[in-house]
Design the sequence.
């Protein structure tokens, strides 16, 4: 009788295991369509379930099949045309590859209209929309990179008051710690100068702001075609506040590598500075680095500003100058993909 009970228990356990669905995964591999090189840090999203992954050094990652055995995948990589695919588990062997084709930039002279007082809507046509989409992808990739590979950076800040005549007498140098979650700042149309304790601060114009839909709605964009920057062929995307923005805001240009769509530099100025408010003028730029393939982070920012109005139309030297530079980065968990052999640069 005891033996029969043991056999029945074993049969019941086997039946239960057979009825419990095993978790199955899909291996996704992303490669360049021409070189066949793996593409690290590619964004893989199942639009049906919201699963989101980025590929490793070998251009690979995995996703769990949902209970209905169906996926609607979107595959994106900076500098490449997005891919979409609807998959069913019964028709896929367990691994799938996506060969990505490079983005192609076109040359029509596109202008913004309506509140931008020109001819056609930039956000809908030509070179500008391609550049804007690449900026948006760069911001989303940075957000996912910060989530998967959180880090702390040591930043050197150098500040100086500039006398009207003569050389700078003193440069104040300090070290600060920056956490990866602090790289995003909130954009407020016509209100980018933060007043505090009788002074002010102006957040650095970063990738997340450039790709913010609210920023798009309150700025005009124009791609100036192709140019050169430090030996690289680039696309320059100019931006300025729309006519209905009357408070302090950003204007300037973003420079992107036309071969890789990587953001190289952003030049910015303070638009709509009100007379009597400080600063009365601010100019600066940010350069970018790529610590991992297809991911860009701010590297150095330099800004100068005036707290006085121009005399007889002449601004003269700025009143203050400041620079920020990331010296070191330390990852809190695992290391991200590197520019190793087989990875595209």
Sequence:
């Amino acid at each position: 009788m005891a033996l029969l009970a043991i056999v029945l228990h074993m049969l019941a356990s086997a039946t239960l295991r057979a009825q419990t669905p095993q978790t199955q995964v899909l291996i996704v591999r992303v490669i360049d369509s021409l070189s066949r090189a793996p593409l690290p840090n590619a964004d893989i999203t199942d639009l049906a379930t919201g699963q989101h992954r980025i590929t490793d050094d070998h251009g690979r990652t995995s996703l769990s099949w949902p209970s209905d055995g169906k996926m609607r995948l979107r595959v994106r990589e900076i500098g490449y045309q997005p891919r979409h695919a609807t998959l069913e588990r019964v028709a896929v062997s367990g691994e799938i590859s996506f060969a990505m084709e490079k983005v192609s930039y076109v040359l029509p002279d596109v202008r913004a209209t309506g509140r931008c007082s020109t001819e056609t809507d930039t956000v809908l046509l030509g070179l500008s929309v391609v550049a804007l989409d690449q900026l948006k992808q760069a911001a989303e990739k940075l957000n996912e990179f910060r989530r998967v590979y959180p880090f702390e950076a040591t930043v050197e800040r150098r500040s100086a008051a500039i006398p009207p005549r003569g050389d700078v007498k003193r440069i104040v140098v300090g070290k600060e710690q920056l956490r990866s979650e602090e790289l995003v700042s909130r954009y407020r149309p016509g209100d980018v100068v933060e007043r505090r304790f009788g002074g002010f601060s102006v957040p650095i114009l970063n990738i997340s702001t450039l790709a913010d839909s609210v920023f798009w709605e309150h700025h005009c964009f124009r791609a100036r075609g192709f140019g050169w920057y430090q030996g690289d062929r680039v696309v320059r995307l100019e931006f300025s506040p729309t006519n209905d923005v009357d408070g302090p805001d950003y204007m300037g240009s973003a420079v992107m590598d036309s071969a890789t769509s990587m953001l190289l530099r952003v030049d910015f100025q303070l638009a709509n500075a009100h007379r009597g408010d400080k600063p009365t003028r601010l100019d600066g730029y940010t350069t970018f680095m790529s610590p991992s393939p297809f991911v860009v982070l701010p590297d150095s920012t330099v800004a100068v500003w005036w707290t006085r109005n121009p005399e007889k139309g002449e601004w003269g030297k700025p009143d203050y100058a400041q620079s920020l530079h990331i010296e070191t980065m330390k990852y809190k968990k695992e290391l991200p993909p590197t520019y190793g052999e087989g990875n595209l640069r």
In short: The longest strand covers residues 281-292.
